[in-house]
Amino acid sequence: MTISESTWLTFGASSEGLLLQEHHRPYTYFSDLSLDQQKPQMIAFIGEQTKSQVLRKTRFGCRPQKGIRGEIQLRIDFETISDPEPVFYADCELHNPSRPITIATQNLGDFTSRPLAFPRDFDTKFLAYQIYSKLISPFSTVICLFADDLGGMAGVLDIMATWLTSLPEAPTDLPISTYPKVLIFKDTGATPEWEDGATKKFLLALSKETAGRQGETPRKKELDVLLAKQFSGVHVLSLPILTSSQRNWTPLRERLLQESGDIQELRNHHRVAFSIRHFKAFFQMAIRHFCLNGDTSFSFIEASRASNPISEDFLVHLTSFLQNVDRKQLLNFAVPVIASALVFDSYPPGMHAFNPLLVFRKFFYQTCLKIDPYKYPQLTRGIETSFSQYAIAVVNSNKGELIHKNALSRFDKEWEKIYSNTTCFCCMARKPENTMSCRHTICDECTISIGEEVDSHAWTFLIPSCIFCGKTNSRKFSLKPRTAGVRSIIAEGGGIRGIIPLSFLKELEAAIGLPTNIHEHFDLAFGSSSGALVIMGLFVNKWSVDKCLTNFQEFSQLIFRKRVRFGRKFPALGYLSRVVEGILSIAADSRYSSANINNALQKTFGMDSSLFEADSGVKIGVIATTTDDCSTCIFTNYNGQETRSESCGYRIIRPEDKTKELFIWQAARASSAAPPYFRPFAGYQDGGLGGHNNPINLAIWEQDIIWNRSKKQPDIVVSLGTGFMQTTKEEAEENSRRISFFNSRCVPRLFASFLNFFVGESRWRELCNTLAPHVRDRYHRFNVEFLGSEPALDDIQVIPGLRQQVQWQASANNEVQQCADNLLACLFYIELDGVPIFDCNTFVCQARILCRLDPSSNGLQALAARLRNSRARFHLDFHRSVFAMDSDMLTDIEAGKPFSKDIIFRARSLTDPLDIKIDGIVSRPRSISNCPYVIETLIKDQGLDCAFGRRGIKRNNVFSNDRFPKRIRRVE
Questions:
Q1: Of 454, 480, 882, 963, whose CB neighbour count within 10 A is largest?
Q2: Residues catalogued as catalytic
Q3: Whole-number pLDDT of residue 229
Q4: pLDDT single digits (tens) 108-160
Q5: pLDDT at 421 over 90
Q6: Which CATH class for the 38-95+119-293 domain?
Q7: Domain residue limits, the chain
Q8: Are the beta carbons of 405 and 467 closer than 8 angstroms?
Q9: Does domain 487-566+573-724+759-821 have CATH number 3.30.420.40?
């Protein structure tokens, strides 16, 4: 079978069964059209030889075109190409082959194959007409049937009756007045004119045929109902003699354009005339719907939210908001706020301007009824009315963000009393992640939409004043780029042995070799017990590693101070002293005073700073357990996008009441309450008691919740241990033979099992057993083995020796340098400048390689110099590479601009993985962040597949065609 440049749909069979293939080549015709401004109208021509001759006579197309058997071809009328509503036409001969055409199934990028839910021996001609009626018809303004090509008027009668009786419901949810007109052409040799008599005769015959198939008495009313489900009218038209002069065909072309224009005008009136971008997106979604659910109607309104679905927690968030609103304020305050939020969510930049009333009824009406406190749905009616008003204002002005901000800020006094850490009141659709100076919160998507991107700081946003209360906001919100991977660091607990993780980080900083703080290299930081103190020092207080080392040692001296006995310190009395200390510890439920650790933590982290409000840019998790059942809990400075299963095995502590949030020092106190050293705090105790002293599994599970990673591997995981004892096989066998009577009893065995909860090395080895070999080098473990006895958790005298042991171990192997190499490579990530362009059997991709270090970071200029001096290169594939730094880029970075390397590459398919590697500054080429990266996933992560927009998409990176040769400037 010949595949032409205009081949759009092919229907046939393969070894997998019946297939429908959508070809991408026709879309390249639209290179000179405006994707968002022009609204196409499509005329479908169904026939064979006569149809092809009529197309030629009526001047559709720039040159003689001939349909191909078994295909639908999509072409453009070049006489209307510059019009606001250009004419497309579908040349349909899908019904033509008598048997399925065998077609290729391998996808090289120029087409997409979709299996049809029909057996291989299914009647393909019937299926072809199903495709016409359910796919082509809804997107057409006029459908032309050529009787001479379809078995005469009797054949057309059979086709129309089949269409009407095989679809019990309308194929779409478009208004009935916007359905296409059917023009039936018969060759009478007369001058083109509407034949009222022939039309009436045909409709009478059609009425009898459809009634007969349904076993009913023919009635005109019944036929009108059937016709109204698919068409806005049926007419029979005479064709001129095929050999007649061109002037006889001009009126026919004008009538076709007039009929099409009339339907298009109605579609504009009803807000269902789609732009070229939306036409393509809707058609592709309609194909998927037909192949999967061919018996159900296609909803254009629902399809527009396919990439931006309505929040499953919408009802929960609305209920949460209303709980904070006085009943007297429901209509004057709650109604406009809710309505504006729903419009803000429903009409992002790029969304088609559907009728607001239809949108509200489709998505929100039933939910609003559930929260309506009035017997008569007064609240719902009010929201519906306000929704329509706000939506019309947004559509007419294209200033959705400003309109929504004004709607919220009108009630600045009311907002001064309303706060929440569980609901973003800006969109009412998601949980908040960022806290402004006034303590009002907002989600990431709203932060991107409402906020201003800080100059030259990619993914750092500022909201100058609170959108609720209007107070000045000084906080900047640093978000992880959507296409960058996750860099995780985990520190386990171990009392004074927490000096070991800090000592390894000191070695890692030296291996990285950049004037940066360690918090600039990670996105997720988890810690338990003393590991939690390390994490919060580095990522909440943003201390340098050196400062954290100093403060950790001073902190240890303070909290592990001997208890004052009977109001005074007694001199050591040997055995008697230890007995007294034991009695006091039992009486006080701890070995050390809670006052000491409380005072030290309050001095370190402040008295009233909430962990959720911590301005970090890094997602932080502090592990604790409950005192009643030892279940694992996590105190966090985030909520996460996804909902955690109730059976996930742990809980995020996030009170509905914002005033009940634990302060930072309290979260640290709860996590470090290790028995018998310290008393529990507020019903919480040491995080290691739940089996997660090394919380590496919790961190990996949470990254999926936070960023919706769909189980994709992180860029790097750095696990920091606090020492372990290694027992050889021979020692284990010897110990089992020499086990004492006492140690064989149940209590000692239970105690030994309990201590195993705290062995972080065991959790690490269990994780390693689950890792595939190709991802193993992403995971790094730094720990020391104790050759003698294991230091006590409160033995501050061993701290210098532990630091020395770390230095020896770091110098004995290259594991630290390998980790540093990975961190350096992960500083770079890729962003596409636009949807890849299909050209010459491949997709052309224009992109940029960016850097996680901001221009304000001390490390960026040092990194740029290293890239230049080492002549580092980015390897795009096995054959192509580009220098990572040139003189112009270096000058820009020195002038305070961000790192940005432009690249262009080709891919045979969007399902191909992209694996960009860097060399020069690392010991061997290593993949940059999130690579290998499937191009299709990259497109989705950037939101470039969202033809109808979505909150949280950065749209400042406009794709430019000017960098491509003219021949490959194609429509997206």
A1: 480
A2: 529, 686
A3: 86
A4: 567 788 888 776 667 778 888 889 999 999 999 999 999 999 999 999 999 99
A5: yes
A6: alpha beta
A7: 38-95+119-293, 314-478, 487-566+573-724+759-821, 827-968
A8: yes
A9: no
